[in-house]
Amino acid sequence: MNASEGGEPGPAPGSGSASGSGPGPADVVGVVGAGTMGAGIAQVFAAAGHPVVVVDVAREALARAAAAVGKSLARFVKKGAVSEVEAAAARERIAYRTEIDALAPAGLVVEAIVEDEAAKRALFARLDATCAAGTILASNTSSISITRLAAATRRAPRVVGMHFMNPVPVMTLVEVIRGEDTADATVAALREACARLGKTAVEVQDYPGFVSNRVLMPMLNEAFFCVFEGVARPDAVDQVMRLGMSHPLGPLALADLIGLDVCLSILEVLGRDLGDPKYRPCPLLKRMVAAGHLGKKTGRGFYRYGPEGERVE
């Protein structure tokens, strides 16, 4: 399937949202943003039987997403977690589009674009005008207020946070973030959707960084400061946390996986919205982001990476 093409996304427009209770087991799911997270979200919904429409303005991003989904599913086949037939069916359920109107059939749309509030608010306003009245609009934001995103729409009860963890096909947690006006039925619909994906939904309130990043980012920031202040080299910092604290991945390797630009953005939101200087981003992090050393996605962060994302010593 060509990344800018794809089969029809499934049921007729509006069929997935008539009840206002979110997507049923075979209803269309929309994903906006074809980056790492968007591709992973599309994969897990498609693997669970949903027709999926991925929308991105960049055809190159759609092509990369299609390739990433294919590689990820191939790894699951190699491990014996899914069959070749199941993987092929999941790939065929995903349509890749550049037009926002392609999301009209969706009962749930998950936004996974850049971590920028203005961009997200503008997108939510467009989705509100495009999608059926009962469609749930969810954000995969790492830190931005769901309440403020909902205020850009006329459907605040059906706006919610759906924060997946990276890598999406592997990690089981989904933070479900309740905005000020998010309806109980919306949260219940997302819990059901997560269960069908084999994920565990954990409900949290709308507060800067929610739970995951409010706890995680200060730890990562301290690891950045350890390197910045010459306390230890990156591999030593990571080894201490892996061997001494039983972390499966060291904080600097994890930051490279998340994206150093994303880490910086989250720390800036925490500092601004909580007004506490303890969230000040490390100057080293700022410098690395300014240089374009963003981690795995650019091949260089605290470590260097090859074309397949493998670490290069």
Q: Would you summarize the structure shown here?
A:
The chain is of the alpha/beta class and 313 residues long. It has helices at 36-47, 59-79, 84-92, 117-130, 146-150, 184-197, 212-228, 234-245, 251-258, 260-274, 283-290; strands at 29-32, 52-55, 94-97, 108-111, 136-139, 159-164, 173-178, 200-205, 304-305, 311-312.
Offer a few descriptive terms.
313 residues; alpha/beta; N-(1-d-carboxylethyl)-l-norvaline Dehydrogenase, domain 2; 2 domains; eight-stranded mixed β-sheet; two-stranded antiparallel ribbon; 10 strands; 13% strand; globular; disordered N terminus
- The tally of beta strands, per DSSP, is 10
Order of helices and strands: EHEHHEEHEHEEHEHHHHHEE
The gross shape turns out to be: globular
CATH topology call of the largest domain = Rossmann fold
The stretches of 5 or more residues where confidence is low (pLDDT under 50) are 1-20
What is the typical, i.e. mean, pLDDT?
Answer: 92
Describe the structure.
Helix 1 packs across helix 2 and helix 7 crosses helix 10. With 313 residues, this protein is α/β, with parallel strands linked by helices. The two termini are 36 Å apart. Strands 3-2-1-4-5-6-7-8 form an eight-stranded mixed beta sheet, sandwiched between helices. A two-stranded antiparallel sheet has the order 9-10. The chain has two domains: 177 residues, Rossmann fold; 90 residues, N-(1-d-carboxylethyl)-l-norvaline Dehydrogenase, domain 2 (Orthogonal Bundle), CATH 1.10.1040.10. The relative contact order is 0.10. The N terminus is likely disordered. It is globular, with a radius of gyration of 19 Å. A hairpin with an 8-residue loop joins strand 6 and strand 7. It has eleven helices and ten strands.
